[in-house]
Amino acid sequence: MAGDLKRYVLVGMICVVHPPLCRAQTPALTFEVASIKPSAADSNSSSGIGTQHGQLHAENVTLKRCIIGAYGVGPREIIGGPDWIDVDRFEILAKTAQRNEGDAVLMEMLKNLMAERFKLKMHRETRVIPAYLLEVSKNGPKLEKAAPGEAGTSTSRNNTRMSIDAHNVDMNGLARTLARELKMPVVNQTKLEGIFNFKMRWTLDSALNDPEAVSIFTAIQEQLGLRLRSEKGPVEVLVIDHVEKPSEN
């Protein structure tokens, strides 16, 4: 016990004097097992990223869609890269050692998976681009407060409709999800604290001529009691420096 105590004290002293050294020794968050294969489905087939019980399943997704999900950005916040990151589609199935890992941990693991298997390297810089501000509508929010627990978000689409099912997600998480779908940055200005469960259903732009169509803007107001307001300003973007196609495994 005395030896263990001395070792812990020594490690603590090193971290105080040389914090970068301790950060460098922190192991990266990685999946226990991960499979990446080309998708056999076409671009019009159902696609999305689902997470639950320490597992991530990305179905018929592009690499850009994975970057969007992992880093919580919209397509316009990703600069550069070859054409195939928007075209080639993949099936990704990855599992952690612990079944109770939430979305935040799984997205960190996805970042590391892309760095390892796609050799993805990026840097951040600030550019002035259009964005949306997420705010509470005049009639107030329509959100179900969630009890603490595992966070998860599942998105699904077909040729005409899109859906989001989320649980234990905060408003920053919702803003990131909306940014992916709107293809523009979304900044959370709701001032709503805590975590929520919510569902959204809307019609894709290509099918808005349907009499029963519901746009994403209408869905946000009617189903969540929130609204989006457009604005232009400085936004941090991700610039792709290097990427490679992965080997199938």
Largest sheet features: 4 strands, antiparallel
**Could you give the count of β-strands?**
12
Q: Please work out how many helical segments DSSP would assign.
A: 6
The overall average pLDDT, rounded, is 84
Rg over CA atoms = 20 Å
Based on Cα principal axes, name the global outline.
globular
Q: How much strand content do the residues show?
A: 35-45%
Measured between the Cα atoms of the first and last residue, the distance is: 45 Å
Structural class: alpha+beta
Q: From N to C, what is the helix and strand string?
A: HHEEEHEEHEEEEHEEHE
The total number of structural domains is: 1
Keywords:
alpha+beta, four-stranded mixed β-sheet, 6 helices, 27% helix, globular, disordered N terminus
Explain this structure.
By secondary structure, the protein is α+β, with helices and mostly antiparallel strands. The protein has one domain (29-242). Helices cover 27% and strands 36% of the residues. The chain is built from six helices and twelve strands. It has helices spanning 2-17, 19-25, 63-71, 103-117, 171-182, 216-224; strands at residues 33-38, 48-52, 55-62, 78-79, 89-95, 121-136, 144-145, 152-157, 161-169, 186-188, 196-203, 226-242. Strands 1-5-3-2 form a four-stranded antiparallel sheet. A four-stranded mixed sheet has the order 4-12-6-10. A hairpin with a 2-residue loop joins β2 and β3 (55-62). The longest helix is centred in the first third of the chain and has 16 residues, at 2-17. The chain is globular and about 50 Å long.
